[in-house]
Protein 1
Amino acid sequence: MSTFYITTPIYYVNGEPHIGHAYTTIVADAMARHYRQRGYDTFFLTGTDEHGLKVQREAERQGITPKELADRNSDSFKRLFEKLELTHDRFIRTTDEDHKHVVEHIVQRMKDAGDIYLDSYSGWYAASDEAFYDEDEIEDGKAISSGSDVEWVEEASYFFRLSKYEKPLLNWYKENHHHVQTDARRNEVASFVDGGLRDLSISRTTFEWGIPFPADPEHVLYVWVDALTNYITGVGAFTNDEMFNKFWPADCHLIGKDILRFHAVYWPAFLMSAELPLPKQVFAHGWWMNEGQKMSKSLGNFLDAFELADEYPLDLLRYHLIREIPLGSDGNFVKARVVGRNNSELADNLGNLVNRSMAMTNKFCDGKVPAYIGTTAEVDVALKANAENVRKEVEEALDRRETHRALELIMGFSADLNQYVAMTTPWKLNKEGETQRLNAVMYHLLEGVRWVAVMAHAFIPRAAAAILKAFGIEDEYPQYDTLEWGGLANQTPINAPEVLFTKLELPEEEAKPEPKKESKPKQESKPKNEGIIEFDDFLKVELKVAHIKAAERVEGADKLLKLTIDAGEDETRTVVAGIAKSYEPEALVDKRVAMVANLKPRKVFGVLSQGMLLAVDTADGGLELAEYSANVAPGTRIS
Ligand code: MSP
């Protein structure tokens, strides 16, 4: 039997779980469920990272022992994951007894390989990241990449010969692009390694909260050696060979982009040194912002994971987190968008599909699945082909870790089923007494609903279970091999679920119309040249050529389009423009238009808009954008 082993990072216990922790673990859970549904013997590991300076300091601050802090917060993560109904097979803690032995083993193997030596370390360390930084990675007392404070460290230390693994690591990245994902992140890591690797300090003597360095308890092992090793402890390394051989190497280490270096450089190097197989994949996902703002301690704007789980139905939270951003990209958590997705996608699309198909079954088919009589009607044949294609594409999307795409496909199929109802009009068939055709249509519809529910299980397990229960199917992980078109048994009684998705109200501040700007207090005496500005004033407005890379409608706002813009900068911008009545989204892609580039970003319908396009009103009441030819490079200043 094929196996699938997926891990999340283990979470630091210095604080409470937030959206970032919930996100990784929910995505990993969806993957674990999906592969279980495909018959893979699956192991899903998550847990807490409890040692190190960062945890010790937080415990000191709170006046408790590190172990007390670890117990308390580890428990909090555990409770969160239970509340989120996640299906991890083990919740590992780095203070677990078996883990200590595995760490001792791996370090011993690294020693045996001649890869560990004693020297002294002097350099910069950021306790918040538990990371060492080179001089050129520091600015104004902070690590440039993370913004964390650094401190100078000088002490005796054991080193790992990381430099020895430069070439093997580069080969590993090159050998198979699947090993480190996304492509952009792999390229970043590869160029970091290509720039030369220095040996890594892997022990500290100035604090105590950690696993003692084997054979030299004066030293505490560097927390990342300890932490990364959890991935092999979790599947029985050095304790349960059968299990270890079955699940190792991991199929996917799902992590956040900030900890890629540890996973794609240090971890494979440790494993090479210890002569253990390398993971099949390290996949770095992006970061969430809160309503357009980076979350930070100083702003106190972390989205608390428990609060999110209280505020939204579980399925909606999973659905939104997975659907909102491609795995690998950054995202912006906007409450209005969660509500929008709930109402227009879950309730209006899927909820409506299930309600109407089950209600029609009651009305027209005596509450039972009608007999399936093969059909040659073009719409039916097309529906079956569509279902089979979606199923295949969902599997492929998951194999590429495109979780958002999988959901898009499933919901697209749900919309196609709604379309099928509109095309086949069962109520008319019923009225006209076309029983045979009616039965064929209703069978196809219900079979389609079953397929949607099976595929959706990994993402919205509660709703999927409720739908499948209506068909009398109560498998813990509804299997993909039941997806044979025609698999739904004739005469199955249908017990429609009560309500699948309840519509939600927009958060208050979003529902209110934007407050009218207060007009400025009138000036006492009007300047003479009213309306005339200085050239310098004109220069304050930064007009630039914007290349439209993508365009889509903003759900629930019929005038708005959300555009992805290349303005010649490192990152693309999002611009919301009120031009949906004049332009189809597809027609905009690749156009070069004029944009005000230095307007203060503004939230429009829950989306942060980072620019404004220039357009004129046309005689017919539409809008026409100012355009440039392909000769003009994106970002060119308009003056
Ligand atoms: N303990 C280490 C991981 C060790 S793995 C062997 C650690 N822990 S953490 O608790 O700080 O972070 C855990 C994960 O949360 C990381 O993958 C990080 O990327 C993720 N996130 C932290 N903030 C995040 C967002 N704002 N958005 C999405 N994920 C974020 O690092």
Protein 2
Amino acid sequence: MRFKTAIAVGLAGMLALAGCSGGGTPATTPAANAGGATTAAGPAGGAEGGAGGDVGVFTWWAEGSEKDGLAELEKLFEQDFPNNTFVNLAVAGGAGSNAKAKLAADLQNNNPPESFQGHAGAELMDYIDADQIEPVNDIIDELGGDSVFPKNLLDLISVDGDIFSVPSNVHRSNVVWVNPAVLAEAGISTDAPADLDAWIADLEKLKAAGVDTPISVGTAAWTQVHLFESILLAELGTDEYNKLFEPGASWDTDAVKSAVSKYAKVLTYANTGGADDWPAATVMVIDGKAGYNIMGDWAVAEFNSKNKTYGTDYLAWPTPGTDGTFLFLADSFTLAKGAKNPEGAKDWLRLVGSAEGQKAFNIVKGSIPARTDVAAGDFPEYQQSAMTSFKEDKIASSIAHGAAANNAWNSEIGTAISKFWTDKDEAGLVSGLVAAADKNNK
Ligand code: GAL
């Protein structure tokens, strides 16, 4: 793996390499959403009205609230590039659980879309290493280069000066979504607990009060990896968590074992079925069937689609024990090698990377713009809090969403986590995690 070092350290490592101590706001911290510009300029460059032809865009934003952000982009694409025809190739399934296999087959069969969704960091490096995507430096330059995209985010999608995608958004993974009415009914404070143990004590109180599902989780393996990464971060702390992704790092440690025990404990308060993918697990909180759910902040779109109000109907906290850290992932869009309509693909990238596109998309998606010049004040309260955290807090990289671990490693972690869902064998989960790291983190 040519680029392993750069990948494995991830965004947090980039900050460290830049001489930043973390926790503060160093000059190189992605100054995401610092406010400032109030206009949302539309895309520049390219042929007037677009290159023409079909532009196939592959994502996993296919159903329910998941597709609402994409619909905003589609609308703008048709408005700004009327010569082009947007072809929606989305395949449903959270975190790309179905889409990634379809994409891999399409790429393998020389049937690429014009552009596909990929996570900044280790996952994107898979596509670069496999020679499946083209550099897009010209588009990034047109869009404003590192004066509008955080330099260290660009580093996660670059190799030897070539930039391989256009970042559309930044999501936060370590968020607990809370139904305050369920907590109040059980006499539990709606303030965030100080740490994981205090939160586990509240889960126990909810159970004792007769709530069947104190915390909801999906049966899809990735939703469990998502829950696990938050607990791993809480138990290890940010620096030790980040070190797990340095090449050759051992996962055979007491800290990982203890995180696995805490994860096992938390699962004793979770549903064992009844929710497949993330929307159903989030809806359990929305409907008052569960007190909590840990999910990325795309959950905002689900709450919005059910007309729920942040701060009253639902609350959001950093996973207890991870306050002060933003567990990071970023979606980005590629120019697929061998795309039939590369100029049309570039028009799509122009829109995705524009201030206009990022404002419209991120307000609805629950994420925050990757660009630094989209005014924070235009965003709802939850996203404003995420912007502040991203700007000021330490950064750690998500496993489940391709920032810290590439597709193969992520999938092997998913297999170990999935086995544990059934057999509850803690030692087995630890050895599965250790084997996955030993094999993939070279
Ligand atoms: C992530 C992706 C998000 C959201 C989520 C749930 O991997 O980055 O944008 O779509 O999956 O499907």
Protein 3
Amino acid sequence: MKMLEKLKKLEEEASTEISGALDGKTLQEITVKFLGRKGKLTEILRELKNLPAEEKRVAGKTANELKLFLQEKISEKTESLLNARFEKLAEDEWIDPTQPGIEAQRGTLHPLTKFIREAEKVFAGMGFTIASGPQIEDDFHNFTALNIPADHPARDAQDTLFLSNEAGKLLRTQTSSVQIRWMEERKPPFRIVAPGRVFRKDDFDASHSPMFHQLEGLVVDRKISLANMKAVMEAAVKRLIAPEAKFRFRTSYFPFVEPGLEMDMSCTICGGGGCSVCKQTGWIEIVGCGLVHPNVLRNVKIDPTEWSGFAFGFGIDRMVMLRHGIKDMRLLFENDLRFLRQF
Ligand code: PHE
């Protein structure tokens, strides 16, 4: 009978292909080729309806048996391929858990981490608490509460990295946001420092990085003046960078302080005579600071007629570069062990 012969041939063809398959992908293809919707066996089954009744019964039965037979054969083959793969893995990748381990080489702390820890100690010695805040911030804590007006250039997408999937969220551009978070939840007086990462849309070159570190300071108490601020900052920088350093303060502008100042330190490289690091001025700008703006205090419901304070924000990466004479900021973030092991 023609139909039975066809089925017999199909059985042989399929069996040979299944036995010869070397991987799961080939088996998949074979399954489609014979049993798929447009597969060879399916086509035959479709032809059955044109046969006389008796022939149809016999051929139909055979065809269905063949279908089950091939399905069975394919799943057996799949399993045996899988087993073979595991056996090979076990052979190639065996380990001896009784072997003694290899001692890990002891690492060193990153120079930034070291600096931050030392700074925390120095400020803790002056009665400061260590604070921290989220790196993903909202507009209110990073800008609005800090008295930064809506049209300030820092709020521009050119300078700030905004999150595209969450409206109003951004990568904090300054640790000053921690001032707000701290004051929102507590009553003065307080003294805090908050080291951490900040982000700005910036180049990555010898003196810029889109991610860098700041150390924020905030003191709020009764009758706080610039004299208090000067004393604290000078003591800290002397201990952290150069005991012999001299300082000067210049007026500057930050919306969240009034007056705003910039503190410069005499150049540690040339001692103040002028060199390429200080651009021949003898001074290096290290920190923005000032007395906390009354609007900022009002924004966190602290009465500016009763309380006053000062705030500062050190650029940690620059200080670490100055401290070790590192000329290229990228070295701090490239994780080159030859560089890092020196510290
Ligand atoms: N947040 C300022 C900056 O990123 C630095 C600063 C902090 C200035 C605190 C004044 C007071 O430039």
Protein 4
Amino acid sequence: MDDGKAAAWAALERECGMCRACSLAETRTRLVFGDGARDAKIMFIGEGPGQREDEQGVPFVGPAGKLLDDMLKMTGLNREKVYIANIVKCRPPGNRDPLNTERDLCLPWLRRQTALIRPKLMICLGRIAARAIISEDFRITRDHGQWFQRKGIFMTAIYHPSALLRDLSKRPETFEDLRAIRDKIREICPATELELP
Ligand code: URA
């Protein structure tokens, strides 16, 4: 990464760390800015930090994160090949859904991360991310696995790993979605080396 881009990332993370736009900043332990390759072609977007993420400052390090790691593996990916971020950067107390106001105040940070990364594919994890990024009327049970294109980025949404931990019956559909994501990566980002079994 060139010096200018590295400086832009450092400035963005610093600025984000000072954000007090909503009350989540008062109750969080740590900001969860994002993790992974800052020049990745593929982004995964979750909802917001849980307890473990809040403690460690890294997205998806709790039980849902372990499953996300397995899901990445199934598409031939790993954390070094993608960038992972959330819709809100601070933990909503008690793991409640982020409020729309919190989401809207936090989204500009994700937009600025996306502008620096310039991904080709964006995978939303769950309803909250899909509604914020793809369409306000997105229904995850109906629309998961469908592809959309916005500003030159291919987008899809799959069930959130936490939902897959709670409800095993959603897993077969998710395997299909992950297979389709793997195929899309091969089509759209052929330079991404996939580690397939
Ligand atoms: N769930 C999310 O949506 N994001 C995380 O970082 C962890 C759990």
